[in-house]
Amino acid sequence: MTWPTVVERLPGDGTSRYESHAVAGPGGVMTDEVGVITGEVTVRTEIAGGRATVRIQYFEADEWYEIEGSPLGLTADPGPRLHQEIVQAVQRGLPEGLKDFHP
Fold it and tell me: What is the H or E stretch that residue 6 is in?
């Protein structure tokens, strides 16, 4: 299940931020800081400087964690489509992080 995406362009540096709520799939999502996260989560993709930084948090929590393998080099179509592909991957489960993610 995916909830609506929040899109925000941050002033000054040209960063675009996309956020969606999802349920992490089997095996959860591997993060750099705390290991695997499971359950209901918020996924954030920030596009800036030719890279996409992907973070995750437990739904309605304060702390954000970088998904292992982030940041990603950008594809020809960064933005909403890339973010949606990441969210779909989270829903399928990313127990190894983004190392095998190919948009």
Answer: strand 6-9
Max intra-chain CA distance, the chain:
39
Residue type, 66: E
Q: Which residue has the tokens 């750099």?
A: 32
How many Cα atoms occupy the beta-carbon half-sphere of 30 within 13 Å?
11
Q: Is the dihedral of CA 92, 97, 101, 103 positive or negative?
A: positive
Residue 81 in this model has a pLDDT that exceeds 50: yes
Kindly provide the b/e burial profile for residues 24-49, where b requires at least 16 CB atoms within 10 angstroms of the residue's own CB.
Answer: bbeebbbbeeeeebeeebbbbbbbbe
User: Is the overall model pTM greater than 0.85, yes or no?
Assistant: yes
